[in-house]
Every structure is written in C-alpha cells, then in structure tokens.
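Q: My labmate handed me this sequence with no annotations at all. I'd like to see what the chain might look like in three dimensions before we decide whether it's worth expressing. Could you predict it?
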Amino acid sequence: MTDEITPAAAEPPSWVEKARTWLRQLPRSSIALGIIFLLFFSVWLLLFAGLPDEDEIRDFKLESTASAGRINWNQRFEKPVRLWAPLSQVSPLLQQAVVISEDDLFYQHDGYNLEMMKEAWRVNLEKKRYVRGASTITMQLARNAFLQDRSKTILRKLRELILTGRLESALSKKQILELYLNVVEWGEGIFGAEAAARFYFGKSAAHLHLGEAALLAAMLPNPIYFNPYKRMKACGRMQKRVLDLMALNRVITAEEAAAAGPSSLALRGALASPVIEPAPLPPLASDSLSAEIDQIMQEAERSLDSLREEEIPPEELLEEQD
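A: Here is what I predict for the chain of 322 residues:
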C-alpha cells in the first residue's frame, strides 16, 4: 500500500503582503489623497503640537523664585531670579520706555508690525546676514514664555506667529505687557522688572525714576552685553536713544531727557555714578537712529564671545571697563 503524500499547507501571507495587495486594489486617487492627508497632518503636528490654547494662556502665571527680602543681591545667583510684579507696581515710566523703544505701535497693532517686518527683511537682505529683527512685544512674549526652541528657524518663527495671534486673542494689551515685563531677561539670571530694579538700583520697580527706567529699557536688545556694571558707555548711548524717543513721542520734555542721562544714575554698590557725556547727535531721523542702534548692536555681537566669563559682583566692577 502506497502512502499518500499530503501537500504542506501554505503559510498565510504576512501583513506586509496583505498591505501590498490592499494597496494594489485601491484606486490611485485614494492613495494620493492618503499621502496628502498624512503630509497635512505632519505639518499640523509640527506647527501646533505643544502650543497652549487660549484658556491655558489666560491661566498662565509666573511665580516669584523667592521673596525680595530673602535674596542676597551681592552674591552670584545659582538659579535664575524672578520677582513677580503686577503692572500697577511697575513704574509707568518703565512701561512707556519699554513700549516706545521695543514696539512703539504696541497699542495699535494686533501682534504683528508688518512695516517693521518689511524693513527688517530689506536690511537683512542688504547686509546678507541677520542684523535686525522685527519682533513685537507680543511676539517676544510668545518666544520667551511659551517656546522652548530658541533656534532661528522658519518652523520656530511660524510657531511664534501662531502663538502671537492666540496671545492677542486671549489677553488684553495690559495683560500682555504685564506678562512681558515679568518674563523678559535683564541680565544673566535676572528676569522681570522687579528683580532688575532691585539688582541694579536697590529699589522696587514701582519707584524707578526716568533715567533708571530708560536704562533698563535700553538693555533689552541684548541684556548680556548691555550690562551697566561692565559697559556703561554703551549702555549710556542706548539709554540716550530711549530718552530721545520718549521726547520725540512727547512722553517727556527735551529738558527732562537731558537731565535723565547716565550722570543721573546711581547703580547699587557704586560709590558714585560715572559722568558720561555722549557725543552730540544729529537730528533724530528714523534712518539715522536705526543705523546708530545697528552699529551698537554689531559691536555687541562682536563682543559676545568674550562675555561668557563668570559674572563679577557689582562691588568688584566699580571701575569703567568699557
């Protein structure tokens, strides 16, 4: 009797083979639509993933890292220092100086200053490198408070623009300015107007006088470089530009601007303020002002590499180092 040979059962197709068979049966239009959907979904994730919604923005609040009375301002800080101050406890002079120097159309635009963007684009193309930004106060707040990525990429900028629109929709201008003044950096490890006022002048942000307010506003373009304990001459030039802008906008008089210069300042820990006489300026046409600020900022960029050394307490920096 001959044994019958039973053919071996065929192995079931793998999921890869099943997928290939399924794709072959689909019309090409469906495959194209699926690819387009995946692309749009990927782009959506890249742009919107992790961004706070309007309710989260309204609930956002920064806490102080310590109480003012417990901070030894003469020691190097192991951790960043921030002291929360409501807008009502920040000098109106500082508020005005910051708005006029950083974003003079802050109360008129909806978070985007298109004219400033066009001008920055033109200047950067002419210089063939990044020399001027066009960030409004709202855009700076979006970047500093909510975005961890600080790289200068198109993706990060698009996320910043999206978040700027949400901030403007969720918050009033006063709320945006209040958050900005508590988020912004004013030196290595110094965050917010209250901490800055106490570190540089030994007083609360509510009691800053005109010269002090203008100096703090002048530091914002590059707070690491524009350190008045290290580079008072550069700070003095920038402070005078802020005072001139305030006078041009009729927030203060020309006499008040002249009296509030660097010679009016008394830095914490300094025995006496250095008397600095900035060079006379030509009439303040907007182009000449921008060119002067660009020149100072370029000096700052060239010096950044030399500013990474360990910070020195104010008491050791009484001599002019500029």
